[in-house]
Amino acid sequence: MKENDVILRTVTRVVVFIILTFGVELFLSGHHNPGGGFVGGLVLSSALVLLYVVFDIETVHQGVPFDFRKIAAFGAMVSLLSGTGAAVLGKPFLTQGFGYFDLPIFGLTELATVTIFEAGVALTVIGTVVTIILSISKDV
Amino acid sequence: MVKFLMLISLVLFSFTILIAVYRIIKGPTKPDRVIALDMIGVNLLAAIAVVSCILLTKAFMEVILILGILSFIGTIAFSKYIERGIIVERRHNR
Questions:
Q1: Is residue B71 in a domain?
Q2: Do the domain assignments include residue B74?
Q3: How confident is the model over A74-84, as pLDDT tens digits?
């Protein structure tokens, strides 16, 4: 029997971008509001899982040609290095700093080094979740 | 008055979720259970919206969005499993 899933594929092409936008918004709002690197990474990886479910593995790998195990390792390394910088400067390990800068478009903005740490956490979560999903589904 | 109506709607949503749980446990076929799971997701979402209206807060909006996304992906995965027997394919053959 030949399946016809054109509605699912068309809806997914739009919904994936909505989910990705929401994940980035959760990631960026994690400084003062609910959210953060872990939840943002989970939502971003749910968008990738939706792509893997609707399309197949080879089609997604043509568009997203990353090895997700390496992404998880890279995220853990980014988090570790963001904490090591404070240890080099004489502060305790994982001490974070922030400052207020006058950016051209955004005006006076608070920039914090926690964002680098959170980016590492998000990359680790994305790599781990996608690796788990692909490993579970590989039995057939 | 409006708050009383919201409380009544919360009770009714909970009752609907109980009915869906009965259908998940009892349901004769797999599509019944999938539809009941989707129904639990939608009713939970509506109940959270009513709760955030009662508490006069906007803190639950992200919860609603994440629940909607996860319920959508779960329903798609279950229906693909029922139709094809495999969720993530290596190569799409048509």
A1: yes
A2: yes
A3: 999 999 988 88
Query: Do the Cβ atoms of A133 and A139 come closer than 8 Å?
Result: no
Which tokens sit at A107?
């005006």
Name the residue type at position B1: M
Residue A54 Rama label (left phi>0; alpha psi -120 to 50; beta): alpha
How many CB atoms lie under 10 A from the CB of residue A130?
24
pLDDT level of residue A2 (50, 70, 90 thresholds): low
Q: How far apart are CA A74 and CA A69, in angstroms?
A: 9
The residues spanned by each domain of chain A are 6-136
Tokens found for residue A47 = 């968008």
Query: Is residue A106 predicted with pLDDT exceeding 80?
Result: no
Helix (H, G, I), strand (E, B) or coil at A109: strand
Q: Does the beta carbon of B82 lie under 8 angstroms from any beta carbon of chain A?
A: no
What is chain B's pLDDT, residue by residue, as a tens digit (94 residues)?
889 999 999 999 999 999 999 999 998 899 999 999 999 999 999 999 999 999 998 888 889 999 999 999 999 999 988 988 888 877 766 5
Residue with tokens 């739009």: A14
User: For residue B81, which amino acid is it?
Assistant: Y
User: What is the extent of the structural domain holding B39?
Assistant: 2-84
Which residue of B88, B89, B94 is the best one to mutate when testing the A interface, meaning the one whose CB has the most A CBs within 10 A? B88
- Please indicate whether, in this complex, the C-beta atoms of A2 and B69 are within 8 angstroms of each other: no
